[in-house]
Amino acid sequence: MSGYIDQLPEKKTTLNRRQFLTAASSACVLLGLPINPFSRNILLRAVGSDDRFVREARFYEKLAHKKIRCKLCPRECVIDDRERGYCGARENRNGTYYTLVYARPCTYHLDPIEKKPLFHFLPGSAAFSIATAGCNLNCKFCQNWQISQVTPEQVNSYYLPPEKIADMARDYRARSIAYTYSEPTIFYEYMYDTAIAGRQRNIKSVVITAAFIEQEPLKELCKVVDAVKVDLKAFSQKYYAEIVRGELKPVLQAMQTIVEQGTWLEIVYLVVPTLNDSEKEIKNLAQFVKEYLHPEVPIHFTRFYPQYLLKNLPPTPVSTLERCKAIADAEGLKYVYIGNVPGHSAENTYCPNCGAMLIERTGFLVRQMKIVNDRCPQCGLKIPGIWQ
User: Fold this and answer.
1) For a Cys-Cys bond, which of 18, 106, 284, 291 suits 155, CB 3.0-4.6 Å?
2) Beta carbons within 8 Å of 284's beta carbon, 6+ residues apart
3) pTM, whole model, 2 decimals?
4) How many CA atoms lie within 13 A of 217 on its CB side?
5) For residue 93, which phi and psi values (nearest 5 degrees)?
6) 135 closest CA partner among 254, 14, 245, 276
7) Side-chain-facing half-sphere of 259: CA atoms under 13 Å
8) Residue among 136, 146, 180 nearest 307 (CA)
9) Cβ-based burial of 2 (10 A; exposed 0-12, middle 13-18, buried ≥19)
10) Which of 99, 107, 322 lies closest to 217 in space, CA to CA?
11) Best CA proximity match to 283, nearest among 263, 264, 269
């Protein structure tokens, strides 16, 4: 693969979550600092014993001395017997790797698809949304940290096998199942089987993800889901390392793969003041989307609000979002949106050929839907997306 991606650094070896927390706790003891009781709970909480939620994981390899190497995400955690990976949701038991969150959602909800946001996917429809505990990243601005930054034992969960989720989605008249709120990569097996169960009932599946995932599992996933919304955190490896505890390169590769596999892709870019909002970074992002993905891939520049561990910055000025949109427009991207600013005209979808308004939105509400047979009714231009 040539171009921008090849200039990014290769992945580095990182501590798994338990190793990191153990080291941090030891450092606190040595320095005489208080240990965060939240972290201690992660270390001391007993291993889950409910076998209903335990299934052998996919995408790992067995090593000597009962160790395994996870091949699901780019961390490729090497895990000793009775230890867990960085995500806290997968465990090595006697040399076999298991997911601990199969059929174990900690939340489910009926959402408008616009909340994800997906703007070119069944507008005005409902998505039956599920999540389990855990994540393979540690974003300082995470809005769902209560479930993403904990282990499965630390939250109340439900036993809902894939077929039950698909039945519930059908009963609620949802047109899709959304894997969202935390990071779907860490409940991959559950998501994959649920997507198949959904298809058997004529229900689509959408993945709301940071796309920090290896190529093989991603390609397999694209065969059974219909759309992916990627939260691209920044267009800077420095930001990924310091704010997200991840890597940019695998995410860019994942987006290319999604497009190559023919799965519908939309991108959300949370604009954080002073950290990822420079004109150069936004321009480089827009050029990457145009050259390596497609100029018709929708991108949403979304307003940041201070929360979790990033409370020292103000909400993103609307003028900054408008500047980002103007840069992306100038670079030739066709569908550029502004998010988290209800009532802004850039929530709407316009025909890039004649300028006609095609979809009018206010927040999560679709007020008008004018696309007919996938085309602009005024000039006939085919509008990319999944409309039926």
Assistant:
1) 106
2) 4, 235
3) 0.89
4) 23
5) -125, 100
6) 245
7) 20
8) 146
9) exposed
10) 99
11) 269
The sheet carrying 78-79 orders its strands as 60-62, 68-70, 78-79
**CA atoms of 298 and 229, how far apart (whole Å):** 10
Tokens 């996938």 correspond to 374
Looking at per-residue pLDDT, the higher value among 37 and 200 belongs to 200
189 residue type, one letter: E
Helix then strand then coil, % of the chain, to nearest 5: 35, 20, 45
The residue count of the chain comes to 388
110-154 tens-digit pLDDT: 999 999 999 999 999 999 999 999 999 999 999 999 999 999 999
Dihedral over Cα of 76, 77, 82, 83: its sign: negative
How far is the C-alpha of 369 from the C-alpha of 191, rounded, in Å?
30
Q: pLDDT digit string (tens) for 268-320?
A: 999 999 999 999 999 999 999 999 999 999 999 999 999 999 999 999 999 99
Cis peptide before 117 (omega within 30 of 0): yes
- Tokens 């409370």: give the residue: 311
The pair of three-digit structure tokens given for residue 143, joined into one six-digit string: 């809005």
